[in-house]
Write a structure and sequence with these properties.
Distance between the termini: 45 Å
Order of helices and strands: HHH
Largest sheet: none
Number of helices: 3
Radius of gyration: 13 Å
Number of strands: 0
Shape: flat
Helix content: over 70%
Strand content: under 5%
């Protein structure tokens, strides 16, 4: 379990480092995809299809937030 937590922490830091030059809208998209993936995984009991579907829907919602 400690290895999994360390792997998640390292991958999160690397991912966030790659997001340093994103626009506000791009950051919203990435955040929405992350939240959607977690929600999809929780709602479907860890199903990979639910996780990917949640990420897709969350990304679209995040992209459209604040749009005029």
């Amino acid at each position: 379990m400690k290895r999994a937590a360390a792997a998640v922490g390292i991958s999160t830091l690397l991912t966030l480092g790659g997001c340093a030059n994103l626009s506000h809208r791009d950051r919203n998209t990435v955040t929405g995809a992350g939240v959607g993936a977690v929600a999809g995984a929780i709602l479907t009991g860890g199903s990979s299809v639910g996780t990917v579907g949640g990420a897709a829907v969350g990304g679209v919602i995040g992209n459209q937030i604040g749009r005029k």
